[in-house]
Structures are given as C-alpha cells and as structure tokens.
Specification:
2 domains; 0% strand
Amino acid sequence: MFGVEPICRVLTEHGTKIAPSTYYAVKSRPASARAVRDERLKTEITRIFVDNYQVYGARKILGWRTPAEVLEEQLRSSQQASVAATG
C-alpha cells in the first residue's frame, strides 16, 4: 500500500531528506554480529522457556545459571571469536 518512495517524499516535504537508495542500502546489509548473537540467544531462551513448562520469568528461565554466568559465557565466546579472527 505504501512504498518507500512516497514515504521518502513526505519526509522530504517535512524537512527530513531521506533518499530511497538509503533505505535499500540499509536493507541489503548483512546482519550485524550483535543481531546474529541476539537471534541465537532468543532461540536458546525460547528452548529453555519451553523446557520449563512455559513458566515465564528470568529467574525460571535462567534458574540453572545465574545472570553473571550467562554474561561470563557470552564474554568468553566473544573473546574467543576475536582471538580467532586475529589469527
């Protein structure tokens, strides 16, 4: 119903100049490392949520690990990735 070009035209009329090519450039970029990691975490959290009979809450979902342990694991994996990337 609404395309990119008409929306960009209206934004330009109101003082915010955005070219349609800017939109398409952003949409064609690959996902960032953070977005990929967040998607992986969402999958894992959903699995834990289902395994725990869909009892919602951070204490139930992360009950088998403390938030500090989760953060430590994330930091360790990101450090390993950066070391591997540098060779």
